[in-house]
Amino acid sequence: MRKLELISFFKKKLNKKIKRLIYNHSLETRNNRSVLTGLPDNIVSLSYNLDIDLDDEKFVFSGTTTIEFKVVKNFDELNFIELNTCDLQVHRAEVLSPEISDEILEAVDIQQNIEDQTTKFTFDHNKLKHLTTNFELKVVYTGITGDKNCGFYRSFYTDEESGLDKYQFVTQFEATDARKAFPCYDHPSIKADFQLKLTTKAGFTHLSNMPAKTSTLFLEGDKQRKSTLFEVLKKHTTYLVAFTASELVPIKSQIPFRIPVTTWTLKGYEERSQYSANFTTQCLKFYEELFDIPFPFPKLDSVLCRDFTFEAMENTGMIVYDVNSLLLEPNGKHTIEELRYCSEIISHEVAHQWFGNLVTMNDWTDLWLNEAGATFWSWFCCDNFYPEWKVWDSFVCGSMQLGLNLDCLESTHPIQYKSCTKGQIAQMFDDISYDKGAAMLRMVTLWLKKETLVKGLSSYLKTFMWKNATSEDLWYHLEQASSKPVVEVMTKWTEQPGYPKVTVNHISYDENEVTLELTQTRFFKASKDKSSNGEIYPVILFIRNGDKVEHVILQDKTMILKVKRENNFGIYNLNADHSGFYILKILLNIKIY
Ligand SMILES: [Zn+2]
Hints:
By secondary structure, this protein is of the alpha+beta class. It folds into 3 domains: 2-22 and 271-495, Neutral Protease, domain 2; 29-243, Immunoglobulin-like; 500-587, Immunoglobulin-like. Helix content is 25%, strand content 33%. The strands form 8 sheets. Strands 3, 4, 6, 7, 10, 13, 15, 16 and 17 form a 9-stranded mixed sheet that branches. Helix 5 crosses helix 6 and helix 8 (399-407) packs across helix 10 (431-448). The longest helix has 19 residues, at 367-385. The radius of gyration is 26 Å and the shape is globular. 47% of the residues are buried. Residues 1-26 have low confidence and may be disordered. Bound molecules: zinc ion.
């Protein structure tokens, strides 16, 4: 079992999604720009109308994006509007507002800043300054469906049946590549409504986050074209918007559920795609009950993509998977590690629909909230359906070790960043965010007990659904549910890098108890790495004595601890089931039995 787990983890690491977050949840501004987005802070995006027309032969698309903004500070000092864009050729921009006398105000200058990935639209200030309420900005542009697996891109494959070379056109926006498909405020803290109209050649299936509202076939010259208008995706962030135009085959879940659950696969992969549809439904049912929150979207599609950089991407209502993560040989022809691998990924991505999509981190600094949350709940989910896998044993031997191994290096970082630049975001999708983060959630679960944790978690999700949240928000709700000092304890664990070595010195013993002196120091793998800042960790000791596990927190550098001898041998364990994220050094300087 352990070996299989290590194989699974090894595969996982090869493809691990490179994601990251920053942490700064205030609406702090500097020089009239939001500290979070870097964009002018005088307007806030409310909704996007995206109209995208794909030329699948020339690998280009034309787009018209109309954004409704709310003015929060007037334009007295600004004569421009600035948006995130990357690799888009902007042709025209105009403001539409009844507050401007002629109702359409065209940009007099359009400047793209390639390094900052922004475009500045300058307008006649005498007119722009009249905007005080809501207005629309319409931007007309063209883009390229490239082959770099980001933005709105083309994925190459060879059709299994015909042997013909073909392309799927699909999006991958996380972390900051929505700006390659449409101009936007491209930051997780900004939630808005999105409505997409997608036009391509007639032969493609169109999918997006939401179901199609209308679908129209029409002739353009001698070519038959297809337009799909999707329902509005409410209160979302840009990195979770997704769409595809591909030749896809639907595989419906065989497990009844109140909304459609479908895996969209390529020809020739139908049989191997059935498990994906079925297990996705099982996960939805499991999480709905666990979180006490019904899956809040009207459908869930899974899409197979042949050329995908990551294992999967959790876009709301339209999860995209690579081949290894989605396909599974039917009828017992798969190996156990293949089944585990698919199940872990599917349950991770479905958990994201709540952790990340419904409640979104406020900044990339809190990426771990998304990734550790989804990782941790995926283990919970797999343990529910496959208890024989003993996934928590595997967690300790696999996932947790990845976190411990990285976190004892001098180059490690806190789970929760204080701030981060766009260039740092990719580095944040590492074993600290995923695996140390998941180990923190397991530690707090074993401290509070599962029922209390689920109660606090459900409260957190219900409070912040359709909004953004921070690490502190999560800890606060767990503290409320448990009446334990969760905020104080866990904030130190997420804000400080590394973990401690706890040295246990036996002081004395008698027939009733053993007296121990505990001393903590930050642990480094290499002796030359000693850049400790004197970190003190709130070490939760999980003291097993007999059948019971008691919790004591080592708050300071040293502590005297008395452990009852409840059996004849005086054998005890200070980190029962490897619940805590630290290592113990036991000095056997006294014989205690
Ligand atoms: Zn994830």
